[in-house]
Q: What sequence folds into this?
């Protein structure tokens, strides 16, 4: 059941830690702002990566809310009442109950994975959760090396899940951790840089697929 037809809810999910899930969640929220949407972030990961980033941030938007002892339904309803146009949920790895709840509440699940075998072998579990819920989903490759055969092999392996795979992979670039340390995203820190261009392409692809 969708929370509200005018509020888009995107769950960013990954079974494996360390694949850049929180980075992509922040970046999608900021890209939504750039696209003229009123966006918010729910930090459902007990590690609090997005919450810590928000404390370093000088901008008021996107709004950031930690899940804490609350429920996703309560937070989504509160953000809806405040007029949010898009909410991005950063989920924890290895926590099936929260992944289930986030995916069930979302209009779209974005599955994040690295390009290497140990990353890819974890995609099946979260894909199964989302397919069982009947939710639209897309896969985004992150932390990819430039000009590497690993990327082609990863795309071939991911094809077995029969989900849309974003044609733009996000390259592992130092601007992402530096931007995070400053409470920014790559689009804000280096708006004309390669990382910003890649994130913009990911967003445009999601829009073209009518997923966001």
A:
């Amino acid at each position: 059941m969708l929370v509200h037809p005018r509020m888009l809810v995107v769950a960013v999910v990954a079974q494996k830690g360390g694949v850049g899930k929180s980075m992509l969640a922040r970046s999608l929220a900021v890209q939504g702002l750039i696209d003229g949407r009123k966006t918010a972030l729910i930090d459902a990961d007990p590690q609090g990566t997005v919450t810590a980033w928000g404390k370093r941030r000088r901008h008021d938007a996107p709004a950031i809310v930690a899940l804490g002892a609350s429920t996703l339904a309560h937070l989504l309803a509160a953000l809806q009442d405040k007029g949010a146009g898009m909410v991005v949920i950063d989920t924890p790895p290895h926590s099936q109950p929260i992944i289930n709840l986030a995916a069930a509440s979302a209009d779209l699940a974005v599955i994040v994975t690295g390009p290497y075998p140990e990353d890819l072998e974890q995609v099946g579990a979260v894909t199964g959760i989302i397919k069982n819920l009947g939710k639209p989903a897309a896969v985004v490759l992150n932390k990819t090396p430039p000009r590497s055969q690993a990327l082609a092999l990863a795309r071939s392996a991911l094809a077995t899940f029969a989900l849309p795979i974003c044609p733009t992979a996000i390259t592992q670039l130092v601007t992402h951790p530096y931007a995070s340390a400053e409470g920014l995203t790559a689009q804000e820190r280096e708006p004309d840089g390669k990382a910003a261009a890649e994130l913009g392409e990911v967003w445009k692809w999601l829009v073209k697929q009518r997923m966001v």
Summary: The domain at 8-208 is CATH 3.40.50.300 (Rossmann fold). The longest helix spans residues 194-208. The chain has a mean pLDDT of 93.
